């Protein structure tokens, strides 16, 4: 028996019809479920149907909530089977953004990332992903209307769980559901070619973000073991297809690691690699992970890399890191609470 948020509109309508409910109930139930209404707020539904919804709704609770000085909130979610996974709610001048996980852990093996340390326990269902989004939505402060932007950049590789990710994206995009526009959603992937080729034709024109982290295959394969089966030139070819199909530029993410991929000549090689593409480079200074013996470059070195890209004609910006002191920045999310957090008081 699948939980309700994992059902498409058509599947939900079929179940309600089989229960003898009138056809209009599907719209009522779908909208209220996918906009996070509480059972007690579903005034327009009969009591028996509210009981049924309560029995079938996804079980997802915030087990721990940490808040950083910049207002970033990191949530440790506990799911129905006891699995745990983290997500992050960030505040920007344009509103609230959620960083959402797609798997419990990750099996890509990136050497700078905490998410992959304990491997991948399992995929998340589309309903679990949406349940986490709605739980985060419930944490918004008074006056904040909604989470307006979503980034699939938490634990896991979205293209390694593509069926459920596609269901989730289409569900939250529906106007009678959460109603999030494609342009407000970003999907980050290390570039699994089979999934990337499929995603390029699935008509989900979100912002595609490729975790690049190196200007050549040799270094990239050292940093991302999964890159060995996914050559750069083939990834770039699919990205060009995506750009042509959607009219959207592709974002290339590049985590700067001291002494490994932060030299000016590597910036020039990166600009050459992406020349002629409708693309943008999002630079991220390494966020520390206790188990990894890697260091963040100096600010001068980071800015020099960014300027070298721009001088070579490559569009680039340096992403502001949020939530680092609560282990909530890029590359720091896990499938359980980090032991270093035990001393941090939960304030909500």
Give the proportion of residues in helices: 25-40%
Low-confidence stretches: 325-329, 338-348
Count of individual beta strands: 12
CATH domain topology of the largest domain: TIM Barrel
Spell the H/E element sequence. Answer: HHHEEEEEEHEHEHEHHEHEHE
The main sheet orders its strands as: 1-2-3-4-7-8-9-10-11-12
Q: Give me the secondary-structure category.
A: alpha/beta
- Through-space gap between termini: 33 Å
Query: What is the C-level CATH assignment of the largest domain?
Result: Alpha Beta
Shape: elongated
**What is the CATH homology-level superfamily of the largest domain?**
Aldolase class I
Mean pLDDT: 89
> What is the second-level CATH architecture of the largest domain?
Alpha-Beta Barrel
Summarize the structure.
The protein is built from ten helices and twelve strands. With 348 residues, the chain is an alpha/beta fold.
């Amino acid at each position: 028996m699948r939980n309700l948020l994992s059902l498409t509109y058509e599947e939900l309508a079929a179940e309600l019809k089989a229960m003898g409910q009138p056809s209009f109930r599907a719209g009522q139930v779908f909208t209220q479920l996918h906009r996070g209404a509480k059972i007690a707020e579903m005034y327009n539904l009969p009591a028996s149907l509210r009981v049924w919804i309560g029995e079938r709704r996804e079980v997802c609770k915030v087990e721990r909530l940490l808040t950083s000085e910049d207002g970033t909130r990191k949530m440790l979610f506990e799911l129905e089977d006891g699995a745990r996974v983290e997500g992050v709610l960030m505040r920007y001048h344009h509103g609230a953004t959620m960083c959402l996980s797609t798997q419990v852990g990750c099996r890509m093996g990136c050497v700078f990332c905490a998410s992959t340390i304990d491997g991948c326990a399992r995929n998340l269902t589309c309903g679990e992903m949406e349940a986490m989004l709605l739980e985060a939505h419930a944490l918004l402060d008074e006056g904040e209307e909604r989470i307006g932007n979503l980034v699939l950049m938490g634990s896991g590789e979205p293209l390694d769980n593509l069926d459920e990710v596609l269901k989730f994206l289409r569900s939250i995009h529906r106007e009678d559901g959460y109603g999030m526009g494609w342009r407000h959603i970003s999907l980050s992937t290390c570039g699994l070619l089979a999934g990337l080729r499929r995603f390029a034709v699935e008509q989900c024109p979100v912002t595609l973000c490729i975790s690049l982290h190196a200007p050549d295959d040799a270094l990239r394969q050292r940093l991302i073991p999964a890159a060995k089966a996914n050559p750069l030139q083939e990834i770039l070819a699919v990205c060009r297809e995506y750009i042509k199909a959607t009219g959207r530029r592709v974002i290339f993410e590049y985590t700067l690691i001291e002494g490994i991929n932060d030299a000016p000549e590597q910036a020039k090689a990166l600009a050459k690699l992406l020349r002629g593409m409708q693309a943008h480079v999002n630079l991220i200074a390494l966020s520390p992970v206790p188990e990894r013996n890697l260091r963040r470059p100096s600010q001068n070195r980071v800015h020099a890399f960014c300027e070298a890209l721009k001088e070579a004609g490559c569009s680039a910006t340096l992403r502001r890191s949020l939530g680092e002191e609560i282990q909530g920045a890029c590359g720091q999310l896990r499938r359980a609470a980090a032991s270093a957090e035990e001393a941090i008081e939960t304030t909500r």
